[in-house]
Amino acid sequence: MTHYDLAIIGSGSGNSLPDERFDGKKIAILEEGTFGGTCLNVGCIPTKMFVYAAEVARTITTAEKYGVDATLDGVRWSDIVKRVFGRIDPISAGGERYRSEDSPNTTVYRGHATFTGDKTIDTGTGETITADQVVIAAGSRPIIPEEIASSGV
């Protein structure tokens, strides 16, 4: 069983923790989904890029009130999507490459992390690890536990 100084579950905001203070420390990053987390891949950043495309289209449709003759001939959704993810996907891939290949003290596990004991984690890859410190930065989804839902609360 491999032991780490620090294990980080999630590669979004948790991935920003390891800096020069962790040089010489053994680090594990565990990620089941797309490297970089929700904000980079499907949240804040792509949303703002889609909104900007909508604002450009809206500006064209209101240009006349500024004395500018312009028409909106159409919106090519597939081109917008291609542009957004053509910029985001390389950032995600670069972040994973940096942690996997360029950070000699870091190991990236691509699987669903599950605690099996005190500071003991099944990596979802067939390997179990331990760590002195564990950061859970995996994000969340709202759920009502069955016990509460069935109680009528």
From TrEMBL:
Cofactor: FAD
UniProt-listed InterPro entries: FAD/NAD-bd_sf (IPR036188), FAD/NAD-binding_dom (IPR023753), Pyr_OxRdtase_I_AS (IPR012999)
Superkingdom: Bacteria
Pfam family, any one: Pyr_redox_2
MF annotations from Gene Ontology: oxidoreductase activity, acting on a sulfur group of donors, NAD(P) as acceptor
Family indicated by similarity: Belongs to the class-I pyridine nucleotide-disulfide oxidoreductase family.
Protein name (Swiss-Prot/TrEMBL): Mycothione reductase
